[in-house]
Structures are given as C-alpha cells and as structure tokens.
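Workshop exercise sheet. Pairs work together: one partner reads the sequence aloud, the other fills in the structure field after running the prediction. Swap roles for the next sheet.
Pair: D.N. / O.F.
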Amino acid sequence: MPRYGMVIDVTKCDGCYNCFIACKDEYCNQEKKGYSAAQPMTGQDWMKIIPVERGQFPKVKQDYIATPCMQCENPTCMGGDDDAVYMRDDGIVMIDPKKAKGQKDLVTRCPYRRIYWNVEENVAQKCTFCAHLLDDGWKEPRCVEACPTGALLFGDLDDPGSAVSQAIKAAVAKHPEYKLGEKVKYIGLPKNFVAGSVVFGDKDECAKGVTVTLTGEDGAKTVETDAFGDFEFEGLPDDKAYKVTVAAPGYKTQEFEVKTYKSIYLGDIIL
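Structure field:
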C-alpha cells in the first residue's frame, strides 16, 4: 500500500494557476460520491495560490506558494466520535461527505485553514488528493498533471525510488512549528534578502567587484558586486539584525545596520 505525499518546489512555480483551474474543473458542481460533495464555483480554493512579494522597487521578487491540504500524519481535524474525518490506508485524510453534514466546527480545526464550509450542501470539505482518481488507476491528482513547470511532485513516500521520496528529504513543512507531520512539504519557501547597488561617485559608474560583507549572529558572508554594481544576500531568517559593510580600495567604507523584518533594498550606495 502506497503512502501518498507531495513536494512543492516554490522556485519552479510561475503563478500560472493551472493547478487551481484543474482542481476547479474536476470538482466544481460535480459530486464525487463517497469522496466529496460538489465544490461550489466560488468561495473555495482547495489548491490555494498565495502570492508573496518581497523587496522594494526596483528590487522586487514575486513568489507563488501553492497550498493544498497538508495531508498531516497527525491531523487536528480528526478526532470526532463519528469518524467524519478519517485517514485512509494510503495516508490521505478525507472528510466523509455524509458524516460531516452540519459539522461546521471542522473548518476551525485546521491551522492551515484548508477546510471550507459548503453552505448549500451544509458540509465541510477540502482537497482529497483526487482520491477518486487514484482509486481508478491515476498516478497523480489533477493539479500535478496540470503543472507545466514540474513544481508539484506526487507519489509514494515509502517507495525509495520515487521522485517524491527523494525530494522530500530536502523539503520542509510550511509551518514546522505546528508539528503535524505534514505529507505536503516545500522546497524554496521564500525568505528575506538584503540587496543594494554600489556606485563609484567620482566616476559616476557602476561599481563592479566591490566587496560587500553581511555580518550577523550566525557569522559573516561576503560577496562581490556584479557588472551593474548590484549585490544580494538571499535566504535570510526573519527578524535578525545584520551589519552590511561595503568596502573598496581607495574609497571610504560604508556600513549599514539592517533588520530582516522584511526583505530590504538599500538603494544606491555611493562610494
């Protein structure tokens, strides 16, 4: 018996929304008997795309985080007396469309907010990993099939030869602090960066090859500016204090104190 999971590579997602559309195409106004009630046309995003913008003009980065049900090993949505929410042998967490009738409290049990309330059907519902298709012989859910960039990997986590079992070794939960044993994990979740552009003031030109050092409690990192005088330190944790030092022979060293409560662009630094 497989144990299904998914790895989402944020660095490969270009925000095309194909996964979102495929999910809608499969479920909107279409009941999957024994699996889920029909998804309404609006109000539910079983594959939610969360846009994340980092930086300030002109140094701006746009990321997209695809967010389905996390299919947790220790799901907070389970635990009722009537088994309205249950885990299949293959690890997929399901909401029984009959037993969950009237149980609106299920919506509040998920810390990821991946459970929705269907007003017309009077039932809670969510992503099912397209369990009805998997049971019919499909190898992957519709969202994975529709992804043109390979950002979504799906398969058997217990198969050491599967791509998903290899990829998940380097992946992390979106919120590891929840400690839910999520079987949907991520590669390349966006973190903060510190960037800037260095200019030789006396020459009025981009400063190539200038040494820039970022010093924090975790040590120091050093880069050189590129042909456009730009530098960047990517992948920095939240709310950490750093000192940025910009040094070039024959010029006065510049220093800046920054804190990564967000991504920071220091603008033009004139030497």
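Discussion prompt: The first helix runs from residue 18 to 27. What would you look at next?
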